Amino acid sequence: MSDAVAAMARADGLGAPAAGGAELMWAAADERVEVQIAAQPAPLATALDAWARAALGDERRAVCIRIVEPAESRALNTRFRGTPRATNVLAFPADAPSVLGDLAICAEVVEREAEEHGQELAARFAHMVVHGVLHLRGMDHQDAAEAAQMEAAEARVLAALGFGDPYTLP
Q1: Domain ranges, ordered by start, for the chain
Q2: Closest CA to 34 of 88, 86, 104
Q3: Start-to-end C-alpha separation, the chain
Q4: CATH architecture of the domain formed by 3-164
Q5: Within the chain, which residues score under 50 in pLDDT?
Q6: In b/e form, how buried is each residue of 34-50, taking b as 16+ CB within 10 angstroms?
Q7: pLDDT tens digits for 51-90?
Q8: pLDDT value for 42
Q9: What pLDDT does residue 22 have?
Q10: pLDDT at residue number 17
């Protein structure tokens, strides 16, 4: 986990365990994907791992996925993007040679978006993991050409995982 996310997870009570339970931390044996679940609803850590690996492709550097409450998402978004609201996914590229970066995914925002878009919750979470990992790999959507390239890459990875194209929803 990057210093930025670690600091925010400890500050002001953010990153506290999800209501009614302890925070879950999980890492695959090869330590390529670390999962931290500090909020619900959240997919199984093994699903988050599989979705991240699909988006990582042949990238060997590690990634940390943290499922967060709205307060933590809002604090991170305010501090690092100057936008004082919770958001679906934030990507923090790392400066370490063995670490690609960190993702902070807000469970409540993803759940709301799944409902608004008529998506299954797992499909929306998979999309946010893939979207975030592609950001860490250098893709962006600042202009129409970049957006088209990134959306096509997302659709390819999600299709390989058995999910529909999130950009052609009804």
Answers
A1: 3-164
A2: 104
A3: 36
A4: 3-Layer(aba) Sandwich (3.40)
A5: 1, 3-20
A6: bbbbbbeebbebebbbb
A7: 999 999 999 999 999 999 999 999 999 999 999 999 999 9
A8: 96
A9: 54
A10: 40
Question: Two tokens at 70?
Answer: 């709205």
Tokens of 98: 């063995």
pTM (two decimals): 0.86
> What secondary structure does DSSP assign to the chain, as a single string?
--HHHHHHHHGGGTTPPPTTSPPEEEE-TT-SEEEEE-SSS---HHHHHHHHHHHHTT--SEEEEEEE-HHHHHHHHHHHHS--S--SEEEEE-SSTTEEEEEEEEHHHHHHHHHHHT--HHHHHHHHHHHHHHHHTT---SSHHHHHHHHHHHHHHHHHTT---GGG--
Q: Rounded to 5 degrees, what angle do the CA atoms 89, 95, 99 make?
A: 70
Identify the CA nearest to 54 among candidates 158, 168, 148.
158
Rg (Cα) of the chain, in Å, rounded? 15
What pLDDT does residue 117 have? Answer: 92
